[in-house]
Amino acid sequence: MTPFQKKIYKIVKRIPRGGVLTYKTIAKLAGSPRAWRAVGNVLNKNRDPKIPCHRVVKSNGRIGGYKGGTKKKIYLLKKEGIIIKHGEVASRFRK
After folding, report:
1. Fewer CB in a 10 Å sphere around the end CB: N or C, the chain?
2. Which residue numbers delimit the Methylated-DNA-[protein]-cysteine S-methyltransferase DNA binding domain (predicted)?
């Protein structure tokens, strides 16, 4: 595992239940502000269920991809209390 991957997983692991972060925010926090696509690639390869990849969304509030499928991602987010309207996160926790 690369140092970049470790940073990404560490950041995502700290996203609280009921909250979300954007790929762009995670890239900034990892010290690579323009690497938001790389963040998505790293999360797509995640095999650890303790890393809540479903809590990462696009900067425009859209759901974005998920290894288990978009419907599963929406289900998991709603289960945690995230409000989703018209395919976008409408939560005050989005950054």
Report:
1. N
2. 3-82
pTM of the model: 0.89
Q: Where are the domains of the chain?
A: 3-89
CATH class of the 3-89 domain in this structure? mainly alpha
Give the three-state DSSP class for 45: coil
| Tens-place pLDDT, residues 1-54 | 899 999 999 999 999 999 999 999 999 999 999 999 999 999 999 989 999 999
56-57 vs 21-22, strand pairing mode? parallel
Structure confidence at residue 91 (pLDDT): 62
Q: Report the alpha-carbon angle 26-15-92, nearest 5.
A: 90
Is 50 within 8 Å of 78 (Cβ atoms)?
A: no
Asked whether 38 and 19 are in contact (CB, 8 A), the reply is: no
Catalytic residue numbers, as ranges: 53
